[in-house]
Amino acid sequence: MNIEFSRPTDPSLRNFRLEYNTIVDRYLDDTDSFVPRNIQTHIVDAIAMPEKRPVIEENGEYIRKSHLATLKYTGAIRDIRLTNEKLLSVKNELAENRQVNLTSGTSIYAGDRDFEISYLYSGSDEVKTLRVEKYTQLEFKRPAQIISIREDAYISL
Asked: Within this chain, do residues 58 and 74 fall inside the same structural domain, yes or no?
């Protein structure tokens, strides 16, 4: 399936949702609302200009932004499966004694809890500590190495 959207006539529209089913046999029922119980429903959320996330704070070292969208509650839905980008758990990487190095422009994401990191900038011996609120992301302007973390954070692979 290849779907393409045209630019909306209302420039304030930025978020879109596509909902579709894997297959619906219209010979059983030709109404638009008929979806058999064993058929999967897929939902795709599209956000125009994702690079324009709301900036919470910016300084010479980093940019802190809020997430574009957050799923906080799904209700009592059986057999729900969420798919997203592959994420790396910073906490798990450090627990396995792996180095976590962030290049300039790489974001580190908070989930549903605040986290606190200790880090070094490339070429520096000064350990810095920073607290990041839940549902936000942090983008360093220089390469940095994460030394320790309280709670967890994630990096897109």
From this structure: yes
Domain span including residue 15: 1-48
Q: Residues 47, 14: contact at Cβ < 8 Å? A: yes
66 - beta bridge partners? 136
Cα separations in angstroms, 147 against 58, 121, 136, 150: 22, 10, 20, 11
24-62 pLDDT, tens digit each: 565 666 666 666 667 777 777 776 666 666 889 999 999
Cα–Cα distance for residue pair 1/143, rounded to 1 Å:
39
83 and 11 within one domain: no
Pairwise CA distance, residues 125 & 66, whole Å: 30
Q: 3-class DSSP state for residue 91?
A: helix
Predicted structure pTM score: 0.68
What the block records as the tokens of 113 is 């809890």
Q: Residues 26, 75: one domain?
A: no
> Concatenated DSSP letters for 27-79?
TT--STT---TTS-EEEEEEES-GGGPPEEEE-SSEEEEE-S-------S-TT
